[in-house]
Amino acid sequence: MGASHTSNWDFLVFLGTVAALGRQVRFIGKHSLFKWPMGGFMRALGGVPVNRSSPQDMVSQIVAQFTSHDDFVLVIAPEGTRSATTKWRTGFYQIALKANVPIVCAGPDYLLKRGVIGPVIHPTGDVEADLKPAFAFFRTLHPRHPERASFPDEC
């Protein structure tokens, strides 16, 4: 899970962090980002287009990817937007719970000029309790646009 996503520059920090880890990582993005001229480039970087109008279908499709690929690593921005929100979307949590995979917290810190990896969460089904360490971790990071940051206390 990558947060706080407040700028398109976050994507470049993400790419640098992934390169440093040496892992093939997938990410989801709104389907409109995958049209010409950027579509091929986004897919080559590991992008998976999603239509956010059907969240339940999206969850089941991504869970299927986890169950059919042992090395599938996915990054999702829980805010679902670069604008400030009062609550995070919980699709990332439902995906991890149903696929029986951990959630690794990570995000850009523009003050430190680096990507930071935080706690690993093993979903139990109690979304509020499970995500408290994530909420605390993300509050320690410095987003590019703090006024757009979403630091909820609950989902």
UniProtKB/TrEMBL annotation:
Keywords: Acyltransferase, Transferase. This is Acyltransferase. Pathway: Lipid metabolism. InterPro entries: Plipid/glycerol_acylTrfase (IPR002123). SUPFAM superfamilies: Glycerol-3-phosphate (1)-acyltransferase. The keyword Acyltransferase applies. GO terms for molecular function: 1-acylglycerol-3-phosphate O-acyltransferase activity. GO terms for biological process: phosphatidic acid biosynthetic process. The keyword Repeat does not apply. Residues 3-108 form the Phospholipid/glycerol acyltransferase domain.
